[in-house]
Amino acid sequence: MVERTEKLTGFLADKLPKILLLIGTIALAFCAVSFGANPRQVLFSYMTAFIFFLALTLGSLFFILIHFLTRAGWSVILRRIAETLMKNIGLMAILFLPIAFFGMHELYHWTHAEAINDVILQKKAGYLNIRFFFIRAAVFFGIWFWLARVFYKNSVAQDATGDFAHTLKLQKYATFGVFLFALTLTFSVIDWVMSMTPHWYSTMFGVYYFAISTVLSLSVITILAMILRRSGFLKNEITVEHYHDMGKLVYGFNIFWTYIAFSQYFLIWYANIPEETIWFREHFMGSWNTVAVFLVLGHFVVPFLGFMSRHVKRNLTAHFVVVCWMVFMTIVDLYWVIMPNFSPEGIQISLLDFAAFVGIGGLYFGFYFLRLRKHALFPKRDPRLEESLHFHNV
Amino acid sequence: MSKKQFFGVVGEFKTPKSLMKAAEALRDAGYTQFETYSPFPIHGMDDAMGLKHSKLGWIVLCGGFTGLSCALALQWWTSAVDYKLTISGKPFFSYQAFVPVTFECMVLFSAFCAVFGMLALNRLPKLYHPVFKHSRFHDASSHSFFLSVDVKDPLYKTLETASFLHGLGGENLEEIED
Fold first, then answer.
1. Is residue B44 located within the same domain as residue B94?
2. In a domain, B133, yes or no
3. Are B41 and B80 part of one and the same domain?
4. Range of the domain at B161
């Protein structure tokens, strides 16, 4: 057998996490200090960043679930990178606490006392009330944390034993896991994002967020693999064949995103019912309309044409540029979904938007690399590892 | 007898590996007009044979673009020019409403181009192929592997090509009539 570097060492393992944690803490401290003067801005910026990194975490959970559900062989070598992202769900639960403690009033106007006079909100009060909201949030995080724990623990345990029973167990868990995932993701985004406009509803909103999270996490897994590659890790193991297939998935799910985003818009546009169209009216106001057009071009047309060719997917530099662009467009997308609730007249970029992203992102990837260095960089005794290493596109 | 009446030399190989090796050797020797036959797809055979990437993708792209523009033009002509009808107060040219049909036509034309383009590039359907004249070729659908070199190849010389194949592990070498 060939000797492989199994563990993360050097700059990525020692210095980078400290730097990231430091930057993250400073940026979040800046948000906390600004909270007194401008609580609304801080909360909405924080919420956008939170929803972004939650999408990344949940998308990675989905990657793991579908990996075991389909008994995939090719993706084994990439699995630890995704598992470690998924395991950050504990951090996301902690990062949710500021929203729960300080954000409810500013973010969700259905929590206001005068909501009792609103006929529609009155009827929704059985679901949209603070106590039930918190119970649901606890259930969502509980299920995610439990799933992430089971999948991570068994995967890591297999590194030591090489026991096939771990794989069989996770294949079993993936079956109902994927149902739990679909339901919790849908209802969580209804609670945390859709209820910012509590009069409005769209049954496609959950799927929309799912599409966002999948494109995002596939892109970030690719970026992380490329960063590891540049630092000399898994250079011969994650080959251009794996990148090619990740590219196909990013491409496919990006078209899926377009399909869902358009369907949501199309049905509401066609039916033309005021209580539904109001959301798009708000999101097409002023410069938000420019952002929407930019989304159509940047999130769909440009990657659709630019990432179609296999040569782009197999050229790692070009591939890197495209997936970074997809991450950027995901930020724009979530910003466009959430921020019009804060500044309805038009886009208003604030320093706090960046601070919240850098803050949560710093902590997120700081803890990510701290966890990544603890175990081997790939499931080293997975029974399908050899299949993954020899994977070849036809 | 002149060479033109012959299809080429066909040889049998016992394993996919030896077939792949033979294909690589032929490619490296400069042969271009040869074909391999196997009961199942062999990963990496395209590279071993030195085949270029298929042109099918470009055909599908053209088909898709044709479908897209035809569908858009049709809907624009019927709804906004030739027979204007006001439907739920929306503009005559409501591009949103045209998207599903445009999309479906693009997919339909692309699919047709993919299927029929594939058939055309493979020159299918074909009712007759000389390679079936090889005495053991029926095994190609169950457990044996074959390689044929076409007379049209500039490097083709019956005896030399046959002995080259023999040196690569080819058995039951036969020169097949066209």
1. no
2. no
3. no
4. 3-53+141-177
Which tokens belong to A175?
A: 């079956």
**What predicted TM-score, i.e. pTM, was given to this entire model?**
0.89
On whether residue B132 sits in a domain, the answer given is no
Nearest chain A alpha carbon to B65: A305
Same domain, B49 and B60: no
| C-alpha triplet A121, A124, A125: angle, nearest 5° | 85
Q: At B34, phi and psi to the nearest 5?
A: -140, 165
Please tell me the distance in Å from A38's CA to the nearest CA on chain B.
40
Mean pLDDT (10-residue bins), chain A, 394 residues: 76 95 97 94 97 98 97 94 97 96 94 89 92 97 98 95 94 97 97 95 96 98 96 92 96 97 95 93 95 97 94 96 98 97 94 97 97 94 91 76
Domain count, chain B: 2
Q: Tokens 């992102």, residue?
A: A361
* Cβ within 8 Å, pair B96-A394: no
Which residue of chain B is at minimal alpha-carbon distance from A305? Answer: B61
CA-nearest residue of chain B to A270? Answer: B97
**Is residue B66 domain-resident?**
yes
Chain B contact for A101, CB < 8 A? Answer: no
A266 closest CB neighbour out of B41, B44, B99: B99
ipTM of the shown complex: 0.76
Query: CB–CB of A394 and B88 under 8 A?
Result: no
- Which of A269, A310, A392 lies nearest to residue B44, judging by beta carbons? A392
Pick the residue from chain B with its C-alpha nearest to A309.
B57
Residues A175, A167: contact at Cβ < 8 Å?
Answer: no
Distance between CA atoms of B55 and A13, rounded to whole angstroms? 46
Residues B70 and B18 reside in one and the same domain:
no
Q: How far is B5 from chain A (nearest CA, A)?
A: 35
pLDDT tens per residue across span B17-36: 999 999 999 999 999 999 99
Please indicate whether, in this complex, the C-beta atoms of B99 and A262 are within 8 angstroms of each other: yes
Q: Is residue B114 part of a domain?
A: yes
Residue pointed to by tokens 């389909």: A70
Report the C-alpha gap between A391 and A76 in whole angstroms. Answer: 10
Here the tokens at position A162 are: 């090489």
What is the per-residue pLDDT across A215-253, written as a single tens digit (0 to 9) for each? 999 999 999 999 999 999 999 899 999 999 999 999 999
Using a CB–CB cutoff of 8 Å, tell me whether A304 touches chain B: no
For the record, the structure tokens of A362 come out as 């710093």
Q: CB under 8 Å to B107, separation ≥6 — which residues?
A: B64, B67
Question: Does residue A94 sit in helix, strand or coil?
Answer: helix
Q: What is the pLDDT of residue A6?
A: 84
| Chain B CB contacts of A239 below 8 Å | none
